[in-house]
Design brief:
The chain is mostly helical. It contains 8 helices and no strands. The relative contact order is 0.09.
């Protein structure tokens, strides 16, 4: 009878197996918990939670219900698309607050109303260009973050370059 010279280890006792077993238990729990939080965080009511988006909705619904408008300013607002109203509100907000607040509200508006996503990049670029005019290129760039695929930074670069 020939004996092996390599020592035999018992199955299931190595550190890699213990880590694997722990991950096999913990990972599904984490995935279920994070999925539950993601579903709970969605606004299912259909009403916008962002005050900027609510103002855009008011302008659009007012246009559809009022018909002809008596003032020129009201008729111009009534004819504008929701993304144009949102852009203008965010530009005003950028001047009153700062670009960070405007970018946060842009992201919230796109999250609340996915149909605005196709306009997100152009709005973010407009915010970037306005930020350069208000804050200068260096300070405007400090507000850049990945909203709409870094389009804000692209607007800063375009306005500066």
């Amino acid at each position: 009878m020939k004996h092996s010279t390599t020592p035999q280890t018992r199955r299931g006792q190595g550190p890699a197996r213990r880590v694997g077993r722990t991950l096999a238990f913990v990972l599904p729990v984490v995935l279920v918990f994070s999925g539950t939080l993601a579903v709970a965080g969605v606004n299912w009511s259909g009403r916008p939670s962002s005050p900027v988006l609510a103002a855009a909705d008011t302008a659009v619904s007012g246009a559809s219900s009022s018909g002809a408008s008596s003032s020129g300013a009201s008729s111009r607002t009534a004819e504008r698309a929701p993304h144009q109203v949102l852009r203008d509100r965010l530009l005003v907000e950028l001047h009153k607050e700062n670009p960070s607040v405007a970018l946060t509200h842009l992201q919230q508006a796109v999250n609340d109303r996915p149909s605005l996503a196709r306009h997100c990049a152009s709005i973010a670029r407009a915010l970037g260009k306005a930020a350069v005019r208000v804050y200068g290129p260096t300070r405007a760039q400090s507000y850049a973050r990945p909203v709409c695929d870094t389009s804000f930074a692209s607007g800063v670069l375009t306005a500066h370059g």
